[in-house]
Specification:
about 200 residues, alpha+beta, Alpha-Beta Plaits, 2 domains, 8 strands, globular
């Protein structure tokens, strides 16, 4: 759940924790002064807590998603775990909310044979946006973006996606390190140097 108000987000976090036994929670501020809450546990407990949070915090909810049987690769990515990119096609999906991106990533991973390399959730330098990076055979990547597009098309949260059918090795290496500028290393490519 994403809240446009930090105060609402913290208030609702307290409510949902008191509503049902939740197994896991990660919450805090993200860019644009938003508050992000991710909860996990049994389907019934999560759904009960989510419904309470939506009823009480309705005015402050920017977006939310409910994944009753979340794919393990999506959960790993949400928790910040990455997988190395391979020298195959790449897709980058950009949305204006975390919930929209997680929802689309879930469909893409469950519906195709793609790897979810990275999922970035409203980092401060991303102005509240979320991105997911997928990797795999071109036909699977195209199918994954088709599935993601089907759920996002026409929604204000969908921004853009791109497919790179044959990425340069430096791009694949860069994606393996991560897309955050401050975390990537300079790559020497062997081109002409300026004197």
């Amino acid at each position: 759940m994403e809240f446009i108000s930090i105060a609402d987000g913290i208030y609702v976090t307290d409510l949902l924790l008191k509503k049902a036994p939740i197994a896991m929670i990660k919450s805090g501020t993200v860019s644009h002064g938003r508050y992000l809450i991710i909860i996990g546990g049994s389907t019934g407990s999560v759904e009960e807590s989510l419904n309470e949070a939506l009823a009480v915090g309705q005015a402050g909810v920017l977006d939310y998603t409910f994944l009753p049987d979340v794919h393990s690769r999506v959960l790993d990515a949400v928790l910040g775990r990455r997988v190395p990119a391979e020298q195959e096609a790449v897709a980058i999906l950009e949305t204006s909310t975390v919930a929209a991106n997680v929802r689309a990533a879930e469909l893409a991973v469950k519906g195709t044979e793609v790897r979810l390399v990275e999922l970035r959730l409203a980092d401060y330098e991303m102005s509240g946006k979320a991105i997911s990076v997928f990797n795999g055979e071109l036909h699977a990547i195209e199918a994954a973006m088709g599935l993601a597009g089907d759920i996002l098309r026409g929604r204000k949260e969908y921004i853009h996606h791109r497919i790179i059918s044959r990425p340069h090795e430096a791009v694949t290496g860069h994606l393996t390190e991560g897309t955050r500028f401050a975390s990537t290393a300079v790559r020497q490519l062997g081109g002409e140097e300026v004197s």
